[in-house]
Amino acid sequence: MTMVTTINLDAATEESRWTLPQARGLEAANASIAAPLLERNRWNWLIWWIAFAASLAGSIVFFIAIYLIFSRGIGIWGVNTTIVWGFAIANYVWWIGIGNAGTLISAMLLLMRQPWRASTNRFAEAMTLFAAAIAGIFPIIHLGRPLYFYWLMPYPNTMHLWPQWRSALIWDFWAILSYILFSIIFWYVGLIPDFATLRDRARTKAPALIYGALALGWRGSAQHWHAYEVLHLALACLGVPLVVSLHSVVGMDFATSLMPGWQETIFPPYFVVGAMYSGFAMVVCLAALVRWGFRLEGLITIAHFNVMAKVMLMASIVMGLSYATEWFTAWYGGERADRGLLAFEFTGTYAPMFCTLLLCNVVIPQAFWFSPIRRSIATVFAIAVLINIGMWLERILIVWNTLSHDYTPSMWRQFLPTVWDWLTTFGSFAFFVLLYLVFVRLVPVVSMHEVRKLIAQEGPR
Amino acid sequence: MTHLLLVEFADESRFAEAARCARSMRYRLIDAYTPYPVEQVFELFEHRDSRIRPAMFAGGVAMAAVAYGLEYYSAVVDYPYDSGGRPLDAWPAFMLVPFATGILLAAVCGFVMFLFETGLPKLSDPVFAVDGFERVSQDRFVLALEPPGEQDRQRAAEFLKSVGATAVREVER
């Protein structure tokens, strides 16, 4: 992360600024962000409605799949007595990784005084909220008896039982619960001044009332801003360790086991970097779509894609190093099961997927060394999509490889996903898209007050 | 009931300069309304240190202590479960829950303290009725001064004009 350099704004050239001239100016920025929410008639929502209908259909499929899992049991998935986790836990890890990144990006960049975060933090935080909420569904539906999921909570009960605090499943429960609630607070605090702007710009009564209530009567007084800045910065300081702990816990779901390929001390940091990596890739995809959909070319610029590509490049190197460390440890440790698993990864049933993941996560992102590739939104977007696919394959293979090839050869099996596995996976994605579409229609996608501050700092055109 | 003189500016530098001048000329600054935080102007006001961070610290530590206490009570006192001679009070494994819930409660306490210090939610305020105040959340900077006495009116009007005020309005609050 440290490779992202701050730019001395006094010496800022046109090339290194974070806004384009057409958006420079407080009113121009306000208008370009608020118009889609308040002047809806001027906007063509056809593509939005098509995407909404498609994602609504996908979400209905998702909930039908969940209904069937609840009514018939997890046997409708491809899980068997050897590969007991399958898609559900892999999807959980993938979603929670994306769910981590928004807060990580927003809070970490705030602490590092990166001014460019102003135009990306809002939709990155929204991504976090929805992805973390969807991630939270998977551990519940993967349970054999999901109706008892509330036993994770400590409460006085007639069974006189308590949760097992040493279990990673309990850690997961508390970490996700705390994280989602924390993220809602962090997100909402950042939104209060923007709701006030929408309240004041609204021409009709209903938006003025709704946004006015959400703004809580924000007046933008010196006292308000001071309290806001203190709280926002303090939340960012707490958000970073919370995110790191959350994904470390996800890593420990695996690492506290005794399985070859899982029982590794590298897992927590390796998972955190993986989360940041896939999250940045998802933010890049959303940035490109938001920029195009809301014509925010003046606020989300090539410079943003350039700097995010640099972060992804660094993350891809760390990921490559993590993979290499795993392989080296397996070989150097000399444990037969570990070496056998390593050979299985490269030559076994899932080897083509494994090679694809290495290609997507480590090899292709090296293209970001070249400035023309970083400065083309199309190539950055395409590589970000590949990184997301690669990271999903990584989560899948962490589960499949180890479970398919543990200590007892007589137990070796393969995982073959059923149609319900695929429908829950794609359905969850459709549900994410649905939530995101609702978000962009109701909430400013870019933080207006932070962009105003950025524009004021960058000075006139 | 206090009266406020709301002086509007179109850009930050004039606004900040005017606030400094007004203070040095002994006009009483009551508040400032801006579309984004302007820290150097906040420094001109009499204010006491925000209690948001102490509240967050206290809430976080208290919640962490409660969470650890619950773990200790359930695992050591109420339901001791000896698994292969492992310690009942397994503090390294118990750390995550106090940590995560402590941060959550720190955030909640910080938010509550934020509401307390800002006086929000307060959906209605006399300043909202002032013409042009809606632009404060968009692109205008407003300084709230104590209105000068009758004999100073002329001098104050000249002063405000000289520092580049675009509008001056009075409101009863």
Record the SSE blueprint.
The complex is a heterodimer of chains A (about 450) and B (about 170).
Chain A: H1 26-38, H2 46-72, H3 86-111, H4 121-141, H5 168-201, H6 205-215, H7 222-255, H8 267-293, H9 302-333, H10 336-347, H11 351-363, H12 371-374, H13 377-404, H14 419-442, H15 448-458
Helix pairs in contact in A: 1-15, 2-14, 3-4, 3-7, 3-8, 3-13, 3-14, 4-5, 4-14, 5-6, 5-7, 7-8, 8-9, 8-13, 9-11, 10-11, 11-13
Chain B: E1 3-9, H1 12-24, E2 29-33, H2 39-42, H3 52-78, H4 91-94, H5 96-118, E3 141-145, H6 153-162, E4 167-172
Antiparallel strand pairs in B: 1-3, 1-4, 2-3
Helix pairs in contact in B: 3-5
Structural write-up:
The complex is a heterodimer of chains A (461) and B (173). By secondary structure, chain A is mainly alpha-helical. Chain A has a single domain, classed as Formate dehydrogenase/DMSO reductase fold (Up-down Bundle). Chain A is 69% helix and 0% strand. Residues 7-12 of chain A have low confidence and may be disordered. Chain B has two domains: 3-49 and 131-172, 2-Layer Sandwich (Alpha-Beta Plaits), CATH 3.30.70; 52-118, no CATH class. In chain B, 47% of the residues lie in helices and 13% in strands. Chain B has six helices and four strands; from the N terminus they run βαβααααβαβ. Chain B has helices spanning 12-24, 39-42, 52-78, 91-94, 96-118, 153-162, and strands at 3-9, 29-33, 141-145, 167-172. Chain B has a four-stranded antiparallel β-sheet with strand order 2-3-1-4, with helices on one face. Chains A and B meet through α1, α5, α7 and α15 of A and β2, α2, α3 and α5 of B.
